[in-house]
């Protein structure tokens, strides 16, 4: 059965998922809860959401969705519960942009106990309209590093650090926070505890819970476009925004390293399917992995040339099976795979989205798999057939009767009509009964033989 319809179907779905964008990554929108009342006894409706883990494109979409929902339900404030080791600078900038341009103030609380706001998280705290930390939490270490955790190139580092220092000072100055500490956090990766942070004007308060944080914010007053707003605990109406399962999956999926591994796994499995007709399981797994990888890359900032180079490496490895290139096509495939991996994701403010150790490790593993599979497939294709008429070529047979150009031979327990090559033996050949000859070719049911 031809595999072309199967391959075409995979390609069609891959193209669809690569360009399809979801309308939302978050929970279903619900009807507004509570009523906003003008006057002394108004209700302060607050929409609460959490970011736990790395900051990436999924968290950008989540924040945008929360701000839209807050506007629809008439929320006065949004409060972010934060626990993050950092993340992509590009994603952090997008979240900052949404926060700074929102008509609804965003409050940030680092909690619960044991949480941290490191790296990109420092910028979110600095940009908040009101900030607090739970006891036994820390914040800081905002120096830019590459994806493997190492410091970036010194020349590039100066440019990136100066840019990030300007950003953090600008957003921290809005709430009259300790600009020197925020600058130090970026330049020297310093950290600070919650108690010292509140005492040093890095954040406004220390609060053991989100409710206590909001009560203290109400007493302190939160600056808005219309002035400072004070409120009491009795006026609070907190609505928690719960992302659905789809967001939880996508927040894992759009990690650049996960997307890269899915892409390479898909390419490798499809290559195995192409070289082993009818295996099916590698084809199904490869198609799913490739579709998920392409979907993630439709959200992530992806270099299309890098993606095409990786797919081109698959073509070169496949051609190695059909064409005798003495390894040249395989070397080209390795080069295309390596270069494509290096440029697949643009540098994120001076550092690679993929650590070089991951690129070299996966490239090496995929190269071994593809070259090994290509070698076995080529060996199988060039191997002498083990069954059928073609398996008889090169075997020996015994003459039963012979006259000039033709006669009968006995082979595999069966009598066969036989002849000789007229170009080699134009006048025929004399063969005695019982002579052993070699089968050179088979045409229909006539065997061409030659003298052994």
UniProtKB/TrEMBL annotation:
<dbReference type="InterPro" id="IPR012340">
    <property type="entry name" value="NA-bd_OB-fold"/>
</dbReference>
<keyword id="KW-1133">Transmembrane helix</keyword>
<keyword id="KW-0472">Membrane</keyword>
<dbReference type="GO" id="GO:0008233">
    <property type="term" value="F:peptidase activity"/>
</dbReference>
<dbReference type="GO" id="GO:0006508">
    <property type="term" value="P:proteolysis"/>
</dbReference>
<keyword id="KW-0378">Hydrolase</keyword>
<feature type="domain" description="NfeD integral membrane">
    <location>
        <begin position="258"/>
        <end position="370"/>
    </location>
</feature>
<feature type="domain" description="NfeD1b N-terminal">
    <location>
        <begin position="66"/>
        <end position="199"/>
    </location>
</feature>
<dbReference type="InterPro" id="IPR056738">
    <property type="entry name" value="NfeD1b_N"/>
</dbReference>
<feature type="transmembrane region" description="Helical">
    <location>
        <begin position="303"/>
        <end position="319"/>
    </location>
</feature>
<dbReference type="InterPro" id="IPR052165">
    <property type="entry name" value="Membrane_assoc_protease"/>
</dbReference>
<dbReference type="Pfam" id="PF25145">
    <property type="entry name" value="NfeD1b_N"/>
</dbReference>
<feature type="transmembrane region" description="Helical">
    <location>
        <begin position="249"/>
        <end position="272"/>
    </location>
</feature>
<keyword id="KW-0812">Transmembrane</keyword>
<dbReference type="InterPro" id="IPR056739">
    <property type="entry name" value="NfeD_membrane"/>
</dbReference>
<protein>
    <submittedName>
        <fullName>Membrane-bound serine protease (ClpP class)</fullName>
    </submittedName>
</protein>
<keyword id="KW-0645">Protease</keyword>
<feature type="transmembrane region" description="Helical">
    <location>
        <begin position="326"/>
        <end position="346"/>
    </location>
</feature>
<dbReference type="Pfam" id="PF24961">
    <property type="entry name" value="NfeD_membrane"/>
</dbReference>
<feature type="transmembrane region" description="Helical">
    <location>
        <begin position="352"/>
        <end position="377"/>
    </location>
</feature>
<dbReference type="InterPro" id="IPR029045">
    <property type="entry name" value="ClpP/crotonase-like_dom_sf"/>
</dbReference>
